[in-house]
Amino acid sequence: MPTLLQPSTAQQKPIHLQLSNRTLIKTIKCGHPWLYADSLQSLPPAPPGSLALVKTKEGDIIAKGLYDPKSKLVFRALAVKERRLDDSLVEARLQRAVALRRRLFEGQQTTGMR
Questions:
Q1: Which residues contact 82 (CB under 8 A, 6 or more apart)?
Q2: What is the DSSP string of 23-68?
């Protein structure tokens, strides 16, 4: 079955990341979508776009997303807390985004929508 996530990402073991500051836990849980390099205790080596879990010191998962240790924004959250990061989540978000853009640009001729 085809996957919306990159095949290499969907099948790899996630990188485990730990926040350097406990106050960021609330920020991530409230929906802030990314972390800068100085937000993490360490930057483990991994290819860009690697699946990653952000965890507390106690090992609780805060967010799941994509990791790039060479970017200024090293982590981009796709799912928070226990929500599954799978094709159904990606598909639902894409459908919601398309529906929103159709409403916003209804009646307008455009070939590009960000």
A1: 61
A2: THHHHHHTT--EEEGGGBS------TTEEEEEE-TT--EEEEEEE-
Burial (0-12, 13-18, 19+ Cβ within 10 Å), 19: buried
Locus of tokens 């998962």: 61
Alpha-carbon dihedral sign for residues 40, 45, 50, 52: negative
Give the predicted TM-score (pTM) of the model. 0.71
Condensed to tens digits (0 to 9), the pLDDT of residues 3-44 reads 555 555 545 789 999 998 888 888 888 888 899 999 999 999
Say how far apart CA 107 and CA 83 lie, in whole Å: 36
Please report the DSSP string for 75-89 in residue order: EEEEEETT---SHHH
Nearest to 79 by CA among 92, 97, 98: 92
* 49 close to 68: Cβ distance less than 8 angstroms: yes
